[in-house]
Design goal:
This protein has a 6-stranded antiparallel beta sheet with strand order 11-12-14-15-10-16, with helices on one face. A 5-stranded antiparallel beta sheet has the order 4-3-2-1-5. It has a 5-stranded antiparallel beta sheet with strand order 9-8-7-6-13. It is α+β, with helices and mostly antiparallel strands and 398 residues long. 34% of the residues are buried. It is globular and about 65 Å long. Helix content is 28%, strand content 35%.
Amino acid sequence: MNKYKKFNIIKGGKEYVKYQFVSAMVTQTRLMGVMAVKIHWKITDEKTQLIQWFLLDSEEHGIYDYKSMKTNKPSEYDYYTEQFMANLGGKRNNITKSEAIHLVSCFMKENKKYNKPLPDPLEEYKFIGEYFQIFIQNQPSLLKDKIFEKIYSSMALLNYFMMRATGKDIEGMNHLIADHNIFLPVDFEIASEASQLLKNTIQFIEKNEMSLIYSMTSIIDTCEGYKEIVSRIKIKRIEREWRVLEASIIKEKTFSPEEVKIEIQKIEYIKIFTGIENSEKLINKLLENKRSLLEYEFIQGRMFVEYYPNNKHVEKDIYYLSGDLRAIYFVNQRSQLIVCYYNAAEEDELQDFVLGQISSENAQVSKKYEINESVIYQYAEGEMTDFIEFIGQFQSKV
C-alpha cells in the first residue's frame, strides 16, 4: 500500500529571509525506505513561524514530497505533522540543526542524481542546501542512531535486507551487513532499477556455529516484470543486533500478474453501516479522532486509510507490502459507510469505534462480507453508487 500522498502547498514568504532554527524531528524509519522530517524555523523579520515537512525516499529518488506552513498556532501545524509522520510507523526522534540540514541536503542531491524533480516551491527550502555547502562537511556522528531502526529480531533483519536490496538502496544494505570485506551489496543485485517487494516468505535452514542460515522466497515487482527470487542468507547477532554475513540468489523466475494476485491476496473483511443522516459530520468526527488518516477522493466518495502505528509486520516470517494497513473507511454518495479491515480479531474494536463516530440513532450494520481479494478500490473507481449492489454483482461473477 502506497502511503505517499501529495499535499496542497501553502506558499508564503519572501525569497530572502533570515531563519532562526527552533527544532526538528525525524521518523526512525530509514530501513522502511521512507523518512519524514519536520523542521521548525522562526522568521525573524516577519515575526512568524515557518514549519516544513519533507518526505525522503531512499529508493533511487530523494525528496518525494514537501509541505510548508506559516503560522504561530501549534494546533494548525500539529495536524500536518501527524499526516506526514504517523503513518510511517516509527519513533520520532529530535534532531539538531546540522542533522536536519544534512538530511534534507543529501536527499536533494539524490533528486539530481536520479533525475527526479524536486517538489515545489523549491525557493522555500533551497537555502537549506546552500547552508549545507557552507557550514557542514560531514554527516553528524549521531544521526545514524536516530534514523535507522534497531534490529533485535532475525525476521526483521531478513525482511529489511530484502526490502533494501529490492529498492537498490546501497546505504541501507551497507548498514545491515556485518563485514564488508566478506560481502558487498553488489553481490546481491535484484533488478536494474529500484523495485518493490510485494511478499517475502522466510524459512529457517540450519544453525552453524554462531550464525543462522535462512531461505527466502520473494515476490518482487520490477521494471522488467514480476519475479520470484529464492535466496540464501546467513546472519549473526553482533552484540544485541542482527546483521547479514552473506547472501546469495539461488534461483529466479518470472511471474505472471495472475500468479502474483494469488500469492499476495488477503481476505478483506467488510462491514456496511447505513442510516447515516449527516455524512459531513461523520467525516469531521473521523478526522478529529484519528488525525493520521490519509484522505483520498474517488468517483464514488471519500476514502480514509488507517495504518498501524508501528512496523511490527516486518518481524513476521511472511511479510506483505500491505501488512501495515489496518482499515479503510469509505463514505459514499449514498451515505453508506463502508469499513474494510484485514484482521478479524479487530472486528469488535473497529465497530465500536465507528458507531461512536455516528451520531444518528438509526445507524446500524446492514451487511457483512468476507472477500478473498480487495474490492474497495474497484468500487471506488467504478460506476455503481450502491456498494451492496456492487458486491452482489461482483460475487455473481466469481
